[in-house]
Design a protein that fits this description.
The structure holds three protein chains of three kinds. By secondary structure, chain A is an all-alpha fold. Chain A has helices at about 1-5, 10-50, 55-60, 70-105, 105-120, 125-150, 160-185, 190-195, 200-230, 235-240, 255-265, 270-300; strands at about 60-65, 70. By secondary structure, chain B is mainly α. Classes of the chains: A mainly alpha, B mainly alpha, C alpha/beta.
């Protein structure tokens, strides 16, 4: 170290410049990566886009045998499973977040929070495995019961949209819950006190003092959760059936964009490969849009608080 | 108001309950719903962890850790997942090298060169990388390395895919923890006449090391469980291989394949056992990271 | 306090009106730490009562005990009796929500609900009580805003967000919000400490008119403020109530040496 002090100033700044350049180069690799994502997926997917035109997004016919590659069933599948999962996950996530921050005493809040975080760490394939061996049979029994009661002409398999929604809901909950919890924790305490001092009950404090303040952040978390759900691959692939058609009912076998890629890529060649990469491009665009929207929602809609 | 009036007014007002019973009921009811919702959230955790342990433990033996998937039999079970364990260690190691180099570099850039005009863009892009689905990362690495014949299906391709997922995790951890390092530590170093690069690398970075290590462990925990980016990059391999230019197995890939292929009870048990090993590894790394970050 | 007549009036009010709020042996604990020690004091109807003392003396802790805000602090415990009109606020059959409804509070930092309009901020308390009649709400909102001397400034933009007001206006909005549920006691926790001198003066003027409707207990770190606005003053030190006297008397002729040392600026 002492030698540094004796160094001429010019050498020090040359070393600093080199250091800065190395750091900037490393950081620029992040930009290069995002750029490459776009280039690779556009180049790989272009033949499919060129062949099908807007039909790629709006058409229903996906058939490798006849070389038709129209992806609407899977776009629909992604959104159906994603929104379906959110309908189940959002109220539960917000409830758990409120429980941890507002209701539970510390000795209970800490382990409950910890357990929900553990739920987020379990890998997708383990959820998929559980889906195959536990959830699908359960859904199948429910379906059989439903067929018995209603006389519908379904074949109960348990494989399909419903199982995918349930698995996704379980997987999205810890994600949305973590964001909701952080946002609720950030609500200034004076908001709670203001409501309490008006003679509000606990629930009224939450409704008037906390949720209005936290709603933008929670909404941002929900949007990110949708992105998560739509990008989630293996657990869905393992339970949804991967049929190349739009879901006819809540229990029918269908596919999402990501599950189709995972299930067909291995045997794909030629235009089918291009079409799957084009689906990957749609997923990329979607995930970027979701991320940016969530950022805007969180920064623009969060109350600025009191001004002094 | 005279004193007499005042006194009667005071006497008249006592604490009859002014909060209506409807509000009391609503308050209690919603509180109950919230507790119930939290319970429902926790049920799958107990179910999944419990069932993975219960169903997996029976197929766990020494063989399971020293034999390969090639040696598995559909009828008698047997064999193990050594090929996948080694594969996961190698590929996660490759990913870690890539993730640490680019991730820490970018984190330093965001925290220490915060006046640079590229900072906001790179921060947003790093966030965007976090949100990109793992399956898309797999497709991109396929298009970049395998379709172009730069490599075949190989561990190196798998490692790059996992590394791309790890980068934003380490970027964020590094940036956050570097920002927590007090400015006066930097100033103390600079005041000694040390050049900036030396202050950053030998004073600031070590002060932030435990946070960066936590981030790295969380990154490892996350990518160790990912199968989607490996499906079209490392492909999987039932044999034990060490050559990173060859297709290689990984724990999540094994669980995926075992679960899909499973027809016999022996295969079922092996799939659960694979899930148990994977889940324990990931929960352990996760808990390690959290413990470390608390001690900080 | 230069006008001797005013002092006289204040003293008379303070000494003859009915006792509204009374503390008997009130101790407040945070865990094992006794932050307020066996305080006994009473406040009469339609007066302004100041609590003064150096930081950490327990004055805010005592204030927050009056409307049971400590129920929300884990580990906080109140012993002794706090009586409103002779009824113990900590009695087993008393609901803290009821207490807070009858004892309003204004905080150190203005805290309007940021997502609500000016109107909705004031109406919030009534809506909680289930009031849905629009004309009744309109009436109470206007009355409360007038009571807080804010009506003229905001009557044309009641739908604007509460957070769009200036700091002093926000604090008066919070006073209006507290008044809307027609409380009997109004607690004020250093309500002007975050405000500029002009806004402070407006709120001090306001207190003079507010005491026609409510009994005010105000914590202030500013002794000039205590002497300007209050009828009685209580001096707290290290959790003890050292002295409780009519304000004029305390500032001219304190009974306790420590009070004298404090008000003459020797410490604090």
């Amino acid at each position: 170290m002492t030698t540094d002090v004796k160094r001429p100033r010019s050498m020090t700044s040359a070393a600093d410049t080199t250091f800065k350049n190395i750091i900037i180069s490393l950081a620029s690799l992040v930009l290069v990566a995002v750029f490459l994502y776009g280039v690779v997926l556009i180049a790989g997917g272009f033949p499919a886009f060129a062949r099908e035109g807007f039909g790629f997004i709006f058409g229903l016919d996906w058939n490798p045998g006849t070389e038709k590659f129209q992806a609407l069933p899977f776009i629909a599948g992604s959104f159906l499973t994603g929104f379906g999962a959110l309908i189940i996950a959002v109220p539960l996530s917000v409830a758990a977040a409120l429980f941890i921050v507002e209701y539970a005493p510390k000795w209970l809040a800490v382990p409950v929070g910890y357990m929900i975080e553990m739920l987020a760490a379990i890998p997708s394939v383990v959820y998929g495995l559980w889906g195959i061996f536990v959830l699908i049979p359960a859904v199948r029994s429910f379906q059989s019961w439903l067929v018995g009661v209603t006389g519908l002409d379904w074949t109960p398999t348990g494989i399909g949209l419903m199982s995918a929604i349930l698995v996704l809901a379980v997987m999205v909950i810890p994600y949305v819950c973590a964001i909701a919890r952080d946002v609720i924790q950030l609500v200034p305490n004076d908001q709670r006190e203001a409501a309490y001092a008006l003679g509000a009950t606990k629930w009224e404090v939450i409704r008037y003092g906390i949720l209005p303040y936290a709603r933008a952040g929670i909404l941002g978390g929900v949007i990110l959760g949708l992105g998560r759900a739509i990008g989630e691959t293996l657990a869905v692939t393992m339970v949804i059936g991967n049929a190349s058609e739009i879901a006819k009912n809540l229990f029918s076998s269908t596919a999402t964009m990501s599950s189709l890629i995972a299930s067909q890529f291995g045997e794909a060649g030629g235009v089918q490969l291009n079409a799957l990469i084009a689906l990957g491009f749609l997923l990329l665009v979607f995930s970027v849009i979701v991320n940016l929207i969530a950022r805007v929602v969180i920064t623009k809609l969060t109350p600025v608080g009191t001004r002094l | 108001m005279t004193n007499a009036q005042e006194n009667t007014a005071v006497q008249a007002k006592t604490f009859t309950r002014t909060v209506s019973s409807a509000r009391q009921f609503q308050n209690a009811f919603v509180g109950g719903l919230i507790a119930l919702g939290t319970g429902i959230v926790l049920i799958p955790l107990f179910l999944i962890v419990g069932q993975v342990i219960f169903n997996g433990i029976s197929a766990i033996s020494v063989d399971f850790f020293v034999q390969t998937e090639r040696q598995m039999s559909a009828i008698t079970g047997g064999g193990g997942v050594l090929n996948a364990i080694v594969g996961t260690i190698i590929m996660v190691g490759l990913a870690l090298v890539m993730g640490l180099l680019i991730g820490i570099g970018t984190g330093i850039f965001l925290a220490e060169f915060s006046e640079h005009p590229l900072v906001p863009l790179i921060r947003v892009m790093s966030d965007v990388l976090t949100g990109i689905p793992a399956i898309v990362v797999g497709l991109v690495v396929y298009g970049l390395l395998i379709a172009t014949k730069l490599t075949g299906y190989s561990a190196i391709a798998g490692g790059v895919a996992l590394g791309l997922i790890m980068i934003p995790i380490i970027v964020r951890a590094t940036e956050e923890v570097l920002k927590l390092v007090p400015t006066n530590i930097r100033e103390a170093g600079l005041a000694l006449g040390l050049p900036r690069w030396k202050v950053t690398l030998s004073i600031v970075l070590p002060a932030a090391s435990s946070g960066i290590i936590t981030g790295a462990i969380l990154g490892v925990s996350r990518v160790s469980g990912e199968a989607a980016p490996l499906l079209f990059t490392s492909l999987g391999n039932p044999d034990l291989v060490w050559n990173i230019l060859q297709p290689m197995g990984a724990m999540p890939l094994s669980v995926y394949n075992l679960a899909f292929k499973a027809l016999t009870p022996a295969q079922n048990a092996q799939a659960w056992a694979g899930a148990l090993v994977l889940m324990l590894f990931i929960l352990m790394t996760n808990i390690a990271a959290r413990t470390l970050s608390k001690r900080r | 306090m230069s006008n001797p007549f005013q002092v006289q009036v204040a003293e008379r009010t303070a000494s003859t009106a009915a006792i509204r709020l009374e503390a008997k042996d009130v101790s407040i604990f945070y865990g094992d730490k006794e932050a307020v020690k066996k305080v006994g004091v009473s406040f009469r109807s339609n007066t302004v009562n100041a609590l003064i003392g150096p930081s950490g003396c327990g004055k805010t802790t005592f204030l927050r005990a009056i409307n049971r805000m400590h129920d929300l602090t884990p580990g906080a415990r109140v012993t002794g009796q706090l009586m409103l009109d002779g009824i113990n606020l900590y009695g087993s059959d008393v609901d803290p929500v009821d207490v807070r409804r009858r004892i309003g509070m204004v905080f150190q930092k203005p805290n309007p609900f940021p997502t609500m309009s000016i109107y909705d901020n004031v109406a919030a308390g009534l809506k909680l009580a289930g009031e849905t009649n629009k004309s009744k709400l309109d009436g109470v909102v206007e009355k409360s805003l007038r009571g807080a001397a804010l009506w003229e400034e905001v009557k044309d933009r009641l739908k604007a967000p509460g957070a769009s007001l200036s700091g002093g206006q926000q604090q008066r909005l919070c006073i209006a919000r507290a008044l809307s549920v027609d409380p009997e006691i109004l607690l004020m926790d250093e309500p002007t400490s975050a405000l500029d001198p002009q806004s402070t003066a407006r709120i001090e003027d306001l207190m003079e008119s507010l005491k026609e409707q409510v009994t005010i207990v105000i914590v202030t770190h500013n002794m000039q403020q205590a002497s300007r606005v209050s009828d009685t003053t209580s001096f707290f030190l290290l959790g003890d109530l050292i002295e409780h006297s009519p304000t004029a008397q305390m500032f001219t002729n304190p009974k306790d040496q420590r009070t004298e040392a404090y008000i003459s600026g020797k410490f604090g």
